[in-house]
């Protein structure tokens, strides 16, 4: 066996830049889980269709119980399938619900998933801690509304596609890394614009926005380069959960994409992403805590095995050798 020499351990990638919202800090020791609660009847994943009010309320309660740090509430399906939803209908779906969540869970960090400034204005400062602009500034006023509300802001990358447009024959160049260069340029410019609008740096979250304006090959390449996105110096959001690039990689429908999503989540967390948008809060929370501990950013909750205090008495539920 070859001896292990000093310095032979592979370096741990850079720690994530912290996101600070509503007095809560999401960082290397505690990466954030953003729970998805869609007030829609047609979400691509059947397990997250919460058009029914009581069902949506239970989803929020459960997400917080399972360790969610942020609740992301949206009223429009991202892709082009499904019904047309105008601003008035989007407001009807999300604003009263945000008000209920704030009343029921006053300390919860609330995110509004929208591309329309009128929806964010209708929700108001009391109910919005983060504006998740999923369509890359399609409404140029939205970032200024977020600043006026005192909210954080998500800068996304969609390859220039307008809202609810699914990618078809999208190309960024002959070099597979061209898509990464476009992502980095777009996110850097968007983050600078958000800061210029008055949003503090620690509230500007950048999202490479996998699947949006991207083929599966594009999304996989961008995911591999998460560390380059982290190097921009802003907290990074990865929205991986049950997406099509996971499904196509494994040839699975949305209902069967949990393990693939968690595998991709572990890789992105190791590379320094700070927040993960997820349909599966408990599983994602456990994966992130495990990765943070392996990275050395979070101590294990227990480290008793093999110590004198417990010699010969394995803790309950721990298998012996």
Automatic annotation (TrEMBL):
Which keywords annotate this record? Transferase
GO biological process, any: folic acid-containing compound biosynthetic process
- GO terms for MF: dihydropteroate synthase activity
Q: Which residues form the Pterin-binding domain?
A: 31-289
**According to its record, what are the GO cellular component terms?**
cytosol
Q: What class of enzyme is it?
A: transferase
Q: What is its EC number?
A: 2.5.1.15
Q: Where is the composition biased (Low complexity)?
A: 306-321
Q: For the region Disordered, give the residue spans.
A: 302-321
Keyword field contains ATP-binding: no
Look up the signal peptide feature and give its range. none
Q: Which Gene3D superfamilies match?
A: Dihydropteroate synthase-like
Q: Into which family does the record put it?
A: Belongs to the DHPS family.
NCBIfam families with a match to the protein in the record: DHPS
Entry protein name: Dihydropteroate synthase
């Amino acid at each position: 066996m070859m001896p292990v020499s000093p310095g032979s351990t592979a370096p741990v990638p850079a720690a994530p830049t912290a996101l600070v919202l509503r007095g809560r800090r999401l960082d290397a020791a505690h990466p954030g889980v953003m729970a998805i609660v869609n007030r829609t009847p047609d979400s691509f994943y059947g397990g997250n269709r919460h058009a029914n009010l009581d069902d949506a309320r239970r989803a929020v309660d459960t997400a917080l119980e399972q360790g969610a740090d942020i609740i992301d509430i949206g009223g429009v399906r991202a892709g082009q399938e499904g019904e047309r939803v105008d601003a008035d209908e989007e407001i009807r779906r999300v604003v009263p619900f945000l008000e209920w969540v704030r009343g029921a869970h006053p300390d919860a960090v609330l995110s509004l998933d929208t591309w329309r400034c009128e929806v964010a204005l209708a929700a108001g400062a009391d109910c919005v801690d983060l504006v998740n602009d999923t369509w890359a500034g399609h409404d140029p006023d939205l970032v200024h509304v977020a600043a006026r509300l005192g909210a954080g802001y998500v800068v996304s990358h969609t390859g220039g596609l307008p809202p609810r447009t699914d990618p078809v024959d999208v190309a960024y160049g002959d070099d597979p890394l061209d898509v990464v260069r476009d992502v980095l340029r777009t996110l850097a410019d968007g983050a600078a614009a958000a800061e210029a609008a008055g949003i503090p740096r620690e509230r500007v979250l950048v999202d490479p926005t996998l699947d949006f304006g991207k083929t599966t090959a594009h999304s996989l390449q961008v995911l591999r380069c998460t560390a380059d996105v982290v190097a921009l110096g802003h907290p990074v959001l990865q929205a991986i959960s049950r997406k099509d690039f996971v499904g196509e990689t494994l040839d699975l429908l949305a209902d069967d994409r949990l393990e693939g999503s968690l595998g991709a989540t572990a890789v992105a967390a190791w590379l320094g992403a700070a927040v993960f948008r997820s349909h599966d809060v408990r599983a994602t929370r456990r994966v992130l805590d495990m990765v943070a501990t392996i990275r050395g950013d979070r101590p294990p909750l227990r480290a008793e095995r093999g110590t004198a205090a417990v010699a010969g008495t394995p803790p309950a539920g721990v298998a012996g050798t």
